[in-house]
Specification:
about 500 residues; alpha+beta; OB fold (Dihydrolipoamide Acetyltransferase, E2P); BirA Bifunctional Protein, domain 2; 18 helices
Length: about 500
Amino acid sequence: MDESSLNEIERARRDIVLSLKASGIDPFGKRFESQLANKELKENFDSLEGKEVSGKGRITAIRGHGKATFATVRDFSGDLQYYFRLDNLGEEKYNFFKKVIDIGDFIGAKGKLFKTHTGEITLEVDDFVLLTKSIRILPEKWHGLRDAELRYRKRYLDLVANRDVIEIFLKRSKIIDKIRNFLQEKGFVEVETPMLQPVAGGATAKPFKTYYHALNQEMYLRIAPELYLKRLIVGGFEKVFEINRNFRNEGISTKHNPEFTMLEAYWAYTDYNDIMKLTEELINYVVRTINGDETLQYNGEEIDFKIPFRRIEFNDALREYAGISMEEIRNTPDLQKLVNNMEIKMDKSITIGNIINEIFDKKVEKNLVQPTFVYDFPIEISPLAKRKESNPYVVERFELFIGGLEIANAFSELNDPLDQYERFKAQIEQKNMGDEEIHEIDMDYIEAMEYGLPPTGGLGIGIDRLVMILTGQDSIREVILFPQLKKKEKDEEEK
């Protein structure tokens, strides 16, 4: 224990711990069984009043009144008031409570339920046991934990101080559960694919690298499970999905965390039109079952999830919101001048694909507030999607936007191994120009395609961003329990 970091009150609590141990009392005790949670004790008060019951939890408030003390005890379900009386506990036990028990401690107790004169359901304690002695002081009840960075660094304190934060993550769990249930009802099989991969693939992103000593080779944390899931379609699966963790060595912002959760699903013998219908049905189902309505508020806007969602072609979206077309971009002799004129700052190399991405990201996305499918993307930014028969410069791809955020990305999957190989080779030229987000060709995947990948529709949904929308949060850090943060130096922590 770093005693230098304890204040005077916390050192006194540490001394209590040492004193209890010296007297043979374990301040970090044993299991305690109680059949009903606080919420259930309240809900069943009419049938439990006057009967012996038990409860457990963390003390979050203590209010002394001479020979009696009230305490608020919190378990995962909520708060319940406990009543400690000298007459019920006896002098020794009551004095133990007064001298030893502090806010933050965990206790277990037995007693009878009653209502106070103000009507509050209360457990009148006949006996109690200390389950864990808290040494450090919790954040003040009324001020809570408000500093955003401290909340993320010490999420456990955030959860103790701010009950609404727990509610966000309970809802997140339910959202994932509903997604899983929906797909399984549709006949999709949940699978798992490698998180350590010899070739980073399935997306354009800079990977995290590691080294596999047993195999004596460099490995990558996956940036996407796509190429492995499509190998399963080659092998005979027809409907698969994975709720997966991905890792991309890129910037951190209110929209991006380098470690994030995705749903990816693949459905054989379909195309992006089938996947578009599946996607809006899935999102509508999740919204209805989680929020109980097809509309919700997000960033001051009412978002309507009624089916069908709005649909707009990529090129039309560019014209409408950026005032430029794909043809103009492709036919511009001076791409740098184009970027400058549009006041677009480029961190990546000046290529048609990168420029298209930046223009769309900066000029178009923020306008797509209502659920909107943008479809028929340019081939330059879609190396894994099938070309449209009517236009070789366009692929069968869509993205779903809600509240100005990209929520989903989907293709009619490219299943021509010859075309795929040529597109990978074209990307290698960008890699040779210094683009770190382009990767080596996954020749094993090409070989798998050569055995035959049936026509397939694929879907990726950003779980974290979807949770942002459904919980009304404007930062991705609010929906990730432990978001990535820069390590604090020791001298900075001591300030």
